[in-house]
Design goal:
This protein is α/β, with parallel strands linked by helices. It has 2 domains: 125 residues, Nucleotidyltransferase, domain 5 (2-Layer Sandwich); 151 residues, Nucleotidyltransferase, domain 5, CATH 3.30.420. A hairpin with a 3-residue loop joins strand 2 and strand 3. Helix 3 crosses helix 10 and helix 7 packs across helix 8. The longest helix has 25 residues. The structure holds zinc ion.
Length: 300
Amino acid sequence: MRLAGAIDIGGTSTKVGIVVDGDRLLHRARIPTTRDGDPAPLVDGIAAALRPMVGAATSGGDTLLGVGVSVAGFLDREHGAMVENANLPALCGFPLRSAIEERLALACRLEVDSNASVVAEYLHGAGRGAARLLGVTIGTGLGGGVIIDGALLRHTGECAGDLGHIILDPKGPRCSCGAHGCLEALVSSPALSYRAGGRKVREIIAAAKAGDASAVTALAETGWWLGVGLASLTPLFAPDTIVVGGGVATAGELLLEPARASYQAHAAPELHRTVRIVGSSFDGWEGLIGAASLFLHPLP
Ligand SMILES: [Zn+2]
């Protein structure tokens, strides 16, 4: 069996696991992302959670190829550290790859989280085989990755740039980056929580699925802004398929249906007809699948 460890560090929670056969999660767990000034407790927590999984996965004699890490933010050119992210300031400039290699005694590779997610969809999920694929990941922040003809776009910060900070409404709410009305300020976990009276994202989604009108409305409004954002991004990357993932996207059609309607209302007519907007295949775990692919099936 070809095995890889995987870590997905988000602004709120961090997922760890072992992936086999490209897209099967053999073990998985979620731990809180500590967000104080010192990155050591987070890295120690990741190592403590992953070590027993590595032991169990390799007890039968299989070897683990390495540990892939999906991390929010821009990466340096050597992929050794994350260099820019307003949601994870403690990790900025921290030598994350070597810290994990030291603690787990395994090879480690880092990838931008939005790249890892779009790779998972491209190789194994809803975007499989798309010639021009845009993936957006909606969590604490909003990120996007682009794969064109099988290769990741890496022109800014080792990814397609900070797609969450295109400005949709200059009079809108203040964003984590300091500007106003960015896509991320309007479409993210905090934005959805705010619209639903401060409830947590998982509670909002559960309530909406049970028919709670205010939760449905909060998701519909978030979806409406998502459609505006995707209509704004389409002329830049000309995707044929857009996959929407991340924790907020586990709402499924409650988010996607209003997003598609809004997209149709806002995008230029000639671009309407061909773009397919679909949900992730992995229910929020796409970051782990993409992180493992750094060893199991690396893309250029
Ligand atoms: Zn912003």
